[in-house]
Structures are given as structure tokens and as C-alpha cells.
Amino acid sequence: MVDYVISEGEFSYRLKGKLNHLYENGQLLYRYASCKPRDQLGAWLNHLLAINMPSNTAFSGDTYLMYREDFWQFNQIEEEKAKLLSMLGFYRQAQLALSSMILPAAFAWSEALVKSSSWVKKTPKQLSMDAFEQSYDYDRYWQLLYRDAPLETLFEADDFKSAISLIVEPLVTSRRDVIFNK
What we know:
The structure is a single chain. This protein is an alpha+beta fold. The chain has seven helices and seven strands. The chain has helices at residues 37-52, 80-96, 103-114, 124-136, 140-145, 151-156, 158-174; strands spanning 2-8, 11-17, 22-23, 26-30, 63-66, 71-74, 175-177. The strands form two sheets. Strands 3-4-5-6-7 form a five-stranded mixed beta sheet. The longest helix has 17 residues, at 80-96.
């Protein structure tokens, strides 16, 4: 059971609820399909909640996310309280105005930065625009919100870059593939 208050400056958040799939050796989350950015963000939030619980001495600090194609692990991280507060702050802002956190684009940008490769000819911004356009075609909500909007301005906004550096980039850098011995 989760029930604690976490504060920073003028904002306090009471976190109350239940973390499922929490075991002595870690947290095991699963998805019976391809892993989407929102699934990764949900696993990251569960990980941050579990490692920030004040009375959680039984938790090893590892979270595993299993899905159709792969198996990832989030280990202990530094500044876990700051990372959780960043997520809570973005959630609070999204309750007041249109969120700048466009997940597919933010993940494409972060993965391009973290896993930079010489064979990729596109910039993080171009990869973000491609990811957004691919998602946009299937999402009626985004089609209504962003119709006639210049995409370049979405990905140049300080809020979008802040979401990447405070939330998505730490997630991508903390994520590790799990290799099973055969």
C-alpha cells in the first residue's frame, strides 16, 4: 500500500493507492502487446513510486517490464525523489493546460540522443516529427488538438525540451535490456 506525502517548495503531493506486482525481489510489470511510450512511462512511474516509498525496506529497487518483444529492467537511480517530483509537476501542469509532453515524439528524441548512431542521418527533431506524424494519423484526439499547428514550433518549445530532459531522458538512460542465459 502506498500512502505518503512528498513535497517540494510550495507543492505537496499525497500519493495513496496500491502498487500491484511488487515482490521482494523487485517489481514485475507486463504487457501482452508491443510496448508503447505510455507503457514505459507507466512502468517508470511505478518504479519511482516504489523506490521513493519511505517504509519500503523489502523492495530491492529493481523494476522489470516484460512485453511481447523484449524485457527491460530499471535499476536503482540517483535523485529518485527529484525525478518523481518532475513527473508529478508535469502531471499537475497538464491538469491546467495542454501538455507539452507528446510521448512518441519525446521518446524518439531521447532515444536518438542516448543511442546516437553514425548510420542514422536524421536529427532528433526530425525523428520526433516522424514519430508524431505516425501517431497523429491514428489518434483522433491529436488530430483535433494539433490541426493546422506548425509542428516545428511544438518541438522547439522549452516545455517540450524540459519534458525530455526531466522525464523521458532519465527513463531511457535507466532502462536496461534483460538478457537470459540459454
